[in-house]
Amino acid sequence: MPRTHKTAQQRLAELQAQKDQIAARIEKTRATLKNDERKRDTRKKIVAGAIALETAEIDPEFAQIFQRLLSRHVSRDQDRDLFGLPPRAVS
Fold first, then answer.
1. How many CB atoms lie within 10 A of CB 5?
2. What distance lies between CA 65 and its chain's CA centroid?
3. At residue 9, does pLDDT exceed 70?
4. Which of 13, 17, 79 is nearest to 25 (CA)?
5. pLDDT the model gives residue 91
6. What is the pTM of this model?
7. Which positions ≥6 away from 6 have C-beta within 8 Å?
8. 86: Cβ–Cβ under 8 A, 6 or more apart, which residues?
9. pLDDT at residue 8 greater than cutoff 90
10. Looking at residues 81-85, what average pLDDT do you find?
11. Residue 68 lies in a domain
12. What are the DSSP calls for 27-87, one per residue?
């Protein structure tokens, strides 16, 4: 069976296709890593928030500090409502 040699143009096209496939796999892996990190960050916030809320229930001094922090840093009215805070005054 005679062996056919690919032209330089064919080899270049194949290499470009391989490069494109690898680039797509790299982007997919980056997206997965970013998504995993977001999930980890969200989970950390949930755990830390649960600890802060539980501590506020049993420690009046911490509850006052926590309430002050919430009042100062929570800006969206729907989020403020979650904590029983009044809406922010419109400037």
1. 7
2. 28
3. yes
4. 17
5. 61
6. 0.68
7. 14
8. 80
9. yes
10. 93
11. yes
12. HHHHHHHHHHHHHHHHHHHHHHHHHHHHHHHH-HHHHHHHHHHHHHH--SHHHHHHTTPPP
The residue segments making up the domain with residue 13 are 8-82
pLDDT, tens digit (0-9, with 9 covering 90-100), for 17-76: 999 999 999 999 999 999 999 999 999 999 999 999 999 999 999 999 999 999 999 999
Contacts of 71 (CB under 8 A, 6+ apart): 85
- Using only the alpha carbons of the chain, give its radius of gyration: 28
Q: Tokens for 51?
A: 């600890």
**Closest to 6 measured CA to CA, from 17, 22, 21:** 17
| Number of domains composing the chain | 1
What's the CA gap between 31 and 29, in Å, rounded? 5
Q: Using the 8-state DSSP alphabet, how is residue 16 labeled? A: H
Cα–Cα distance for residue pair 15/22, rounded to 1 Å? 10
Whether 64 maps to a domain, the answer reads: yes
